[in-house]
Write a structure and sequence with these properties.
NAD(P)-bd_dom_sf, oxidoreductase activity, 7-stranded parallel sheet, Epimerase_deHydtase, oxidoreductase, NAD, 9 strands, 9 helices, two-stranded parallel ribbon
């Protein structure tokens, strides 16, 4: 490809994706509200921009074939704090991509679009939305918008419902929900390189023995996850404190399923894990 745009490029997952995406195009335009890092890749350009401002996002799409949209506030917040970056920002990306004739949006959706489904429900990509937070609701909004832009304007979209993406699984929940950085890279790369996709939803999980989903829905992309959280099972299960009355342990969304609307879900994940986690 001639050009790919990556939003959220300064985030934990955006940082992981910059190098592999740079190999998929002649030019990678990385953008974030954060300032440019100290070093860039040889074919990478950095643009500091606010997702909530259409006039800052629209020019980035000129000449691009795809946008990999990972920019967002990655936590539950009061609705007004998410409205700009997560809701309006998603619209701005899709509308700008449509105006400039891009082929596809690859979107970082989340398990939290279906976070109130039970762990034992054998959820697959056909399950209806059950968001656990305003954050999850933003993912539902963007997925539905992606389908609409495909059906009304022919702009393809692959919405990747990412679970617990960290270098290693951090807690007992992650024995099912972990997505390794290697598998994340493979999933996004396949979503970019597959010739045609139409509109699609796929779950971002590794090859975990305890995966709570029936089918990750990404086979048509050629995604074959390689890593398995079971390698950490003995250590993580020894730390577990089972409680069947705790929604955080019984629902796909984990701690996001148990917090009050507008309150941080990441705080619960950090307390459970002892570290950071992206979902």
């Amino acid at each position: 490809m001639k050009k790919i745009v990556l939003t959220g490029a300064a985030g934990a997952l955006g940082t992981v994706l910059r190098e592999p995406l740079s190999r998929s195009a002649d030019e990678l335009v990385s953008t974030d509200i954060a300032a440019q890092p100290e070093s860039l890749l040889p074919n990478e350009t950095w643009v500091q921009a606010d997702l909530a401002k259409f006039d800052e996002i629209e020019p980035l799409m000129k000449g691009a074939e795809m946008v990999v949209h990972f920019g967002a506030v990655v936590d539950e917040k009061p609705f007004p704090e998410l409205l700009g970056p997560n809701y309006v920002g998603a619209y701005n990306v899709w509308e700008a991509a449509s105006q400039h004739g891009l082929r596809r949006v690859v979107y970082a959706s989340s398990v939290h679009a279906v976070g109130l489904w039970e762990n034992n429900a054998d959820v697959d990509v056909t399950a209806h939305h059950r968001p656990d937070t305003f954050y999850g609701l933003a993912k539902c909004f963007a997925e539905d918008m992606g389908r609409m832009y495909w059906e009304k304007r022919g702009l393809e979209a692959v919405c990747l419902r990412i679970f617990s993406c960290t270098p290693e699984p951090q807690n007992a929940r992650a024995l099912g929900t972990w997505l390794s950085y290697g598998d994340l890279t493979q999933l996004v790369t396949r979503a970019v390189e597959t010739p045609t996709t139409g509109f699609a939803v796929a779950f971002g999980v590794s090859n975990n023995d305890r995966s709570p989903i029936k089918d990750h829905g990404a086979h048509f992309l050629g995604y074959r996850p390689r890593d398995n959280a079971e390698d950490w099972a003995e250590t993580l299960l020894a730390k577990a404190q089972p409680d069947p009355t705790d929604l955080a342990q019984m629902r796909l969304g984990g701690p996001f399923a148990s917090v009050a609307l507008g309150e941080s879900g990441m705080a619960g994940i950090r307390a459970l894990s002892g570290g950071d986690e992206e979902e």
